[in-house]
Amino acid sequence: MHPILAIGSVAFDSIKTPFGEAAHVVGGAATYFSVAASFFTDVRVVAVVGEDFTDEQMQVFAGRRIDLAGLQRVPGHTFRWRGEYSFDLNNRDTIYTYLNVFEEFRPVVPAAHRETPFVFLGNIHPVLQAEVLDQVSSPRLVAADSMNYWIERTPDELRDVLRRVDVLIINDSEARELSGEANLVKASRVIRDMGPKLLVIKRGEYGVLMTRDDGFFAAPAMPLEEVFDPTGAGDTFAGGFVGYLASHRGMSDQVLTQAVIYGSTMASFAVEDFGLDRLLRLTPEEVRARFSQFKRLTHFDDV
Ligand code: AMP
């Protein structure tokens, strides 16, 4: 079992879906990722929050396998983001993104964490992602995520960091935007030429497509009757996916495909309640049971 070093946003989110609203709740890419991945292995977070992030809010990380030595608390406001979803939950408008303390942030990987073998570069400025990579010595696997916000504003910096990434985990619209290709199979090839040998495309309620030079693996999303808030589903998927890889020896096809299903399993819980709420009350037994449900959902015989 290997630990994971993760950089990304820790945020205050405001969310509006057709089913309700949540204001000023703890969110952020690194938060969803680390809570999900901590079901599988130890996670070391590198991020920043402002003085407005209270000890009570810090409790989301408490009692989990999450090390906060690399989480800085500095004067100023925590990152803030507001998203609003359309009726079918497939489209989301970003109403605002305030980087706040992330504007001046310089990530510092604690000396004891510089040899961490798995690195997750969560959604944040690609220069910050690169600064984390500069501070770790020859990791076994570098996985990354990004977002339209960075694809549009910092395309060159993102290209630079992608050259150093093994696995990119992004959603379908981001894959299209990054590659300039509408067709996802073509888009994957273009993106794999940018650096990542393995690409995992998240397609919301339609599931996930994993692509490599030598083939594909696709998994559906769990059909759920209660879907309240998709926020963080992507980062939660990444937490389950990378968490599972880090908790296993080797990276055989079997381990990779199981990692996709564990990622999908974790994401299926994240959407069942607002913000982090469902993940915070999730148990390992529930994870295991839903993983088995996925097996029944996708299994068929060929005779
Ligand atoms: P997801 O729904 O998986 O795309 O992730 C949503 C999370 O990403 C929210 O908790 C936000 O706080 C965070 N987020 C939104 N926009 C950005 C951004 N531009 N950079 C970093 N994190 C962001």
List keywords for this structure.
303 residues; alpha/beta; nine-stranded mixed β-sheet; four-stranded mixed β-sheet; binds adenosine monophosphate
Derived structural class: alpha/beta
Portion of residues within helices: 25-40%
> What is the terminal-to-terminal distance?
38 Å
Strand content: 25-35%
What radius of gyration results from the CA coordinates? 18 Å
Major β-sheet, in short? 9 strands, mixed
Counting H and I runs of at least 4 residues, what is the number of helices?
Answer: 11
- Helix and strand run: EEEHEHEEEEHEHHEHHEEEHHHH
Total strands: the figure is 13
The averaged pLDDT comes out at 96
Could you list the spans in which at least 5 consecutive residues all have pLDDT below 50?
none
Give the distinct bound molecules: adenosine monophosphate
Major sheet strand order: 5-4-1-8-9-10-11-12-13
Shape: globular
